Amino acid sequence: MIKQILGKIPRKHSKSSGDPSHSASSVTTSKRSEGGSKRLSSSVDEAISAPYSVLNIRNNAEDKFLRDKNSRLNGNQIPASYEALPSFRDVPNSEKQQLFIRKVKMCSVAFDFTDPTKNVKEKEIKRQTLLELVEYVTSASGKFSETVMQEVVKMVSLNIFREFTPQPRENKLLDGLDLEEEEPSMDPAWPHLQVVYEFLLRFITSPETDAKIAKRYIDHSFVLKLLDLFDSEDPREREYLKTILHRIYGKFMVHRPFIRKAINNIFYRFIFETERHNGIAEFLEVLGSIINGFALPLKEEHKLFLVRTLIPLHKPKCLAMYHQQLSYCITQFVEKDCKLADIVIRGLIKYWPVTNSSKEVLFLNELEEVLEATQAPEFQRCMVPLFQQISHCLNSLHFQVAERALFLWNNDHIENLIKQNRKVILPIIFPALERNARHHWNQAVHSLTLNVRKIFYDLDPDLFKACQVKFQDDEAKEKEMKEKREATWKRLEELAARNAASNEAILVP
């Protein structure tokens, strides 16, 4: 994508190098436009003119350009002489880094993109300058100085860090419904923001950026503000943020514990307070890659993250928006340490939905993935509460829930675990299978139930018949209790009718 953008710049003898970063893809759906692009501050003139006064500038025309910076344009606080600076190819190599700093400071001017008719020329100059900066960073040879890093972070911060004004979403996120049918509200500033994000991404991944120096400016404060941007409603912005955060985590090892803790805190607020955040899926994608790189044996900190954060993330009703990424993270933990399967399965049972059938299907999908990575000892520890829950799912009147539960027997690994422990499992689920076989309304569920019954019957006829006899005995007892209960209520009604005129209490023997 960025190559198409860069293609608009005329270049001579430029060194093309492979893109070291993962450029974020353009997503067709954008949930809202960016609210409140920053207007220009009164210090913009100084931000642009200050660095020029200390540089050894040979061109007298440029000196005049710098002296004119304090003028105003129509009261908008935009420099009257906001003109493009010389191209990198037009200056000697010894002056390129100074020119780079000047261009970075020039891009520290923020424009109002909500009005497309304002400052059209200046916006285009800034955009072209940003594209030149992207190209320069990509092909740079020679370590960036501390001054460059400081100015880069300052410029990026001014352009991307902003307050979001969230739109009312009470009626939009009901049960995690997809909003793809809604007309996307495209951010008018995105063509500008995209280049800033691409520049930041290239700068971080550049081998010329020394992490030991850059960490002074890409610090905890910068990371926190970057994490706040994940609540953007524009999926294209979140895609860039996801890639940038992953690169920061990989390059700045000193920040890793802080990043994990900060994401943790965002998750806690989402789970237990707001249940509203646009970037949960992107956070989980980053964490999925991080979890994949955890060393064995797993640290206690990581196990606590699983128990206190990832498992409770099944609680919010908008689970569907990020379930795929969450399921991947959970499965990664179980594959790394099979002993965690018992903890995960019991956690799923704890947060199992009661009235939300679509969410129940998601739980069953995840359960199959977890069980596929579960070994026999861990399976035996949790199989009783697990199949009590599956038994409820088998009898669900929502055919997709019952059908999905029966599909567990299509997985060879899970079927083998069930067969090995049939003496415990079959008595738990037999009543559910029998009720489905007798009178479930859905034909597909009925057929699948008969197939599962046949599996157990062919495997162990004696156990099957014993369960059948017990079920019939329990059914007879239940019928007898029901008749007694009905007789008691009938006698109570008769006594109530006989003593209707009096205020005496009615005692039923």
Oligomer state of the chains in this structure: single chain
If you compute it from the alpha carbons, what radius of gyration comes out, rounded to the nearest whole angstrom? 32 Å
Portion in beta strands: under 5%
Number of domains: 3
How does the helix and strand content classify structurally? mainly alpha
The low-confidence runs, each spanning 5 or more residues with pLDDT under 50, are 5-76, 169-181
End-to-end Cα distance, whole Å, is: 83 Å
Question: What are the secondary-structure elements, in order, as H or E?
Answer: HHHHHHHHHHHHHHHHHHHHHH
Shape: elongated
Q: Major sheet: size, sense and barrel closure?
A: none
Helix content: 55-70%
The total count of helices amounts to 22
Number of strands: 0
How would you state the average pLDDT, rounded? 82
List keywords for this structure.
22 helices; mainly alpha; 3 domains
Q: Outline of this structure?
A:
With 509 residues, the protein is mostly helical. It folds into 3 domains: 1-10 and 22-165 and 179-225, no CATH class; 252-374; 381-498. 61% of the residues lie in helices and 0% in strands.
